[in-house]
């Protein structure tokens, strides 16, 4: 019987169990995260943690060394009935109005003059911006000698013209005017440079069209420049509000050698000065934190007010303007037709 040879069946191919795994996206992105991690670590330590800790200690009574005592909302209840705190709000708002309103108006006028200047533009821009980069302590010391009651340059000038002396650093209004003048002198150049950048973004065709229509320089400034600068004005108003409600160094340096941190009668005691006094002089860190969060609420409130007054909806305003223009044109056409019919 013949023996037939049988060939072995071909091996069945099986799917490989050692398929390559997809790359780990976290491992790939690790170098990038490691590169930016120092910022987030520093922000968490020196930014986020102090903010969260200030919220926590505002609900405690703490002298900064001993054990914290939970008091709940008692700090905020006392804050609402604290006459000194409400006085600091009034002082801060008055100083803010006396400094911010003339500062922004003067900055807009200076920016318009710099925009139209033909000679020494760079010199004037640097000259107006120098006060902003000068030490605020040095500026306050100089203005302290200017507003001094006995030997101040301002009183010497007033005596020379026969007006008489003004007790700038002892009267309530004199103290507020002195602090507001320091703030205005320091920040007017900064805001003028911002306004100048906004003016340079306005197309020259708009001004040429205004000249063709016969608009005067005053009409061009108030009806073209100011409306088109509204976003920039909103920015400066909000930043000036934030800075104005946080005034501290000016009053602290002016009255640093006196018994009261806010000057005679606490006329220069601002909200931040009261926070500093409560936390670092009286060692009432919980109450100081409560004052700080009350200041935060005020800043948010006044920023929203500025946004509503200066900002608003551009589309709605443009629609109203267009509607008024159409109404004026229709009224003018009707007047012409009536005049023609009478003739």
TrEMBL record:
Q: Where is this region: Disordered?
A: 1-24
Q: Which GO terms describe its cellular component?
A: plasma membrane
Give one GO biological process term: transmembrane transport
Q: Which domain of life does the protein's organism represent?
A: Bacteria
Major localization class? membrane
Does Transport show up as a keyword for this record?
A: yes
| A Pfam family hit | BPD_transp_1
User: In this protein, which residues make up the domain named ABC transmembrane type-1?
Assistant: 89-306
Which residues are listed as membrane-spanning? 33-59, 93-114, 126-147, 231-249, 285-310
Query: Where is the protein situated, by its record's location annotation?
Result: Cell membrane
The family note in this entry says: Belongs to the binding-protein-dependent transport system permease family.
Q: Which UniProt keywords apply?
A: Cell membrane, Membrane, Transmembrane, Transmembrane helix, Transport
Q: How does it sit in the membrane?
A: Multi-pass membrane protein
Protein name as annotated: Sugar ABC transporter permease
- Write down the InterPro entries for this protein, in alphabetical order: ABC_transporter_permease, MetI-like, MetI-like_sf
SUPFAM superfamilies, A to Z: MetI-like
């Amino acid at each position: 019987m013949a023996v037939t040879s049988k060939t072995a069946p071909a091996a069945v191919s099986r799917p490989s169990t050692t398929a390559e795994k997809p790359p780990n996206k976290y491992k790939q992105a690790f170098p990038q995260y490691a590169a930016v991690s120092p910022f987030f670590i520093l922000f968490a330590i020196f930014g986020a943690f102090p903010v969260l800790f200030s919220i926590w200690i505002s609900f405690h009574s703490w002298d900064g060394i001993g054990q914290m005592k939970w008091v709940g909302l008692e700090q905020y209840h006392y804050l609402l009935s604290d006459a000194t705190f409400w006085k600091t709000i009034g002082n801060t708002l008055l100083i803010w109005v006396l400094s911010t309103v003339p500062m922004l108006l003067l900055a807009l006028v200076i920016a318009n003059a710099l925009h139209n200047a033909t000679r020494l533009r760079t010199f004037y821009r640097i000259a107006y911006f120098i006060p902003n980069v000068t030490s605020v302590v040095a500026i306050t010391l100089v203005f302290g000698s200017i507003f001094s009651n006995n030997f101040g340059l301002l009183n010497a000038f007033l005596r020379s013209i026969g007006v008489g002396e003004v007790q700038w650093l002892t009267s309530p209004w004199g103290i507020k005017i002195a602090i507001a003048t320091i703030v205005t002198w320091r920040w007017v150049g900064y805001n003028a440079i911002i306004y100048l950048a906004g003016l340079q973004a306005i197309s020259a065709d708009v001004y040429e069209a205004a000249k063709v229509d016969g608009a005067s320089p005053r009409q061009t400034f108030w009806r073209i420049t100011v409306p088109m600068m509204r976003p920039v004005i909103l920015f400066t108003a909000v930043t000036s509000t934030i800075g104005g409600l946080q005034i501290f160094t000016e009053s602290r340096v002016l009255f640093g050698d006196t018994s009261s941190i806010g000057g005679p009668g606490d006329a220069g005691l601002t909200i931040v000065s009261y926070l500093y006094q409560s936390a670092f002089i009286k060692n009432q860190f919980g109450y100081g934190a409560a004052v700080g969060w009350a200041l935060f609420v005020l800043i948010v409130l006044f920023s929203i007010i500025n946004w509503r007054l200066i900002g608003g909806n551009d589309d709605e305003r443009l629609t109203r303007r267009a509607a008024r223009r159409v109404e004026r044109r229709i009224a003018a056409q009707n007047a012409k037709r009536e005049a023609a019919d009478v003739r």
